[in-house]
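Troubleshooting: if your tokenizer reports a length mismatch, compare your output against this known-good record of 324 residues.
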Amino acid sequence: MQARSVAIALLVVVSNLAAAQPPANPEAQAQAAERQRRQDALPDTPGSGRYAALKEIDSTLVEHVIYRPANLDSLGAAKLGVYVFGNGGCTDDGASARLHLLEIASHGYLAIAPGRIYNGPGKTQRPAERPAPAGPGGPAATVAADLRAALDWALAENARAGSRYFGRIDPNAVAISGYSCGGIQALANAKDPRVATVVIMNSGLFVNGPTRMGGIEAGKELLADLHTPTLYVLGGPTDIAYENGMDDFARITHVPVAVTNIDTGHGGTYWEPNGGAAAQVVVQWLEWRLRRSANAGRAFLGTACGLCADPKWALQTKRFEALH
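Known-good structure output:
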């Protein structure tokens, strides 16, 4: 089991192609370069929601990438929810899940990922003084505090006269999320009282021994910090994080929690159009938990729930009797 945990830590970093160390052999290096080329060639998408989305670097938050509705005036009286996201591999490529984050933003959310744009449209080169992540056990390119900094900034901008976000954010509609290593960073922030829900994607704490990644060293005791309804989205038994995520789900008994699996492995649906099926599930969860949409809640509630009837998904829930 410990060997599996070590393998997971290694694969989490390798899975993020934009930030991974150069492969050890020319053939693997060429394959990684081709995958990176294909990713870079994919255009940004506006998302399927009501508000066409864009990504950008804000001059007041230059170490993060922001995803938002392109026309904030189109929100009218509606308020933005906040979705802070930890990157796969804990990379500093804030565009490494850009299709997923653009989809979230298109439904009226301010999504923020730490790092700069090292992927796709607007890509810049990583400066020489900013080396790629060193791998498991080495210095992390991003840390859990970067997610807190994103939330601090968003709520401060909501209160700052003259900000484009002044009065546009609902401070009670805050989610923290992350993919793989970034999911561990999200768990490290779960105790923040400003967080209203947690979404952990293709991730989970190691079953045996402490989890060491993303500047974090923690065991399953970190789960006790959860104080809100929590969703795990996993890639089925072939996901290298499956065992860890399912064990987290089994151990969480004090808050409502759901785990839903789709047979995609660790790679998820991040590079499918608009972030694929997993992004749609996250949108439904956010609409239900942050905006109290009864219609969105039907995806998760009852024996005839939307995910229950969808053969692509396998859903398990606990303590949902308290939710509506």
